[in-house]
Design goal:
Layout lengths: L4 E5 L6 H12 L2 E4 H14 L7 H4 L8 E6 L2 E6 L2 E2 L7 H11 L2 H17 L2 E5 L2 H5 L5 E6 L2 H14 L6 H17 L12 E4 L5 H19 L1
Parallel strand pairs: 1-6, 1-7, 2-6, 7-8
Antiparallel strand pairs: 3-4, 4-5
Helix pairs in contact: 1-9, 2-4, 4-8, 7-8
Length: 226
């Protein structure tokens, strides 16, 4: 059976990773978190002492990098040179670095083949900013998952507080809006809804309702293509 690709795009904090992971498990597909890959490169760049905005400083870091995904007991782990960095990449600082490095063409090219190879060999649910527009333009199902900035900031704030981060909700909202501006206005693969993507707004939905809504779109779309 030919592998099926599901592309889920949307802004930061929309719950793409959580929802895509859960829906992939329900469908028996492989979940691919491209955002984690960019965060991992951002971590490597940060560790190399490259400041935000120094695009030229990124390029010498790339050749020596090894970024991979490993699944253990149904949980995705992100490896940087063999080191599990899954926890280190989920901080506000790494969100900024992810947005920074993802705008660099050389970084996107570095990861592109890896991401497409996964979709060629497995049925996948892949989430990110430009999956349906650039990475997998021929995906069988495309979804643009979004929510209001306020709803996304509230969710991210609670997540960070649970991890022990000292942040305010206003700070998280400001970071969220800045990330939205950066992602939607960058020259390289800006965040936008693909023309053939289905819009799913989760502002007023619980997590479980959001998962159900996304799964329903996928099943309905695949059924319509038979």
């Amino acid at each position: 059976m030919k592998p099926i690709a599901v592309a889920i795009d949307g802004p930061s904090g929309a719950g793409k990773s959580t929802i895509a992971r859960a829906v992939a498990a329900r469908l028996g597909f492989v979940y691919v978190d491209t955002g984690a890959m960019y965060r991992t490169i951002g971590l490597a760049v940060c560790r190399a002492g490259v400041p935000l905005g120094d695009t030229a400083g990124i390029l010498p870091v790339l050749p020596g990098l090894s970024v991979s995904l490993r699944y253990q007991d149904g949980v995705q782990h992100v490896l940087l040179g063999g080191e599990d960095v899954s926890d280190y990449i989920r901080t506000p600082e790494m969100s900024k670095y992810a947005s920074f490095v993802s705008a660099v063409p050389e970084v996107r090219a570095f990861l592109l083949d890896t991401q497409r190879d996964m979709a060629r060999t497995h049925s996948v649910v892949m989430d990110g900013r430009d999956i349906g527009t650039v990475i997998l333009p021929d995906a069988a199902v495309k979804i643009f998952l979004t929510a209001s900035p306020e709803a996304r900031a509230q969710r991210r704030y609670l997540e960070l507080r649970q991890k022990g981060e000292t942040v305010t909700q206003d700070e998280v909202l400001a970071d969220m809006r800045q990330r939205d501006r950066d992602d939607s206005t960058r020259a390289q693969a800006p965040l936008r809804q693909a023309a053939d993507a289905v819009l799913v707004d989760t502002s007023e939905l619980t997590l479980e309702q959001s998962m159900d809504a996304v799964e329903a779109v996928i099943r309905r779309t695949l059924e319509g293509q038979r």
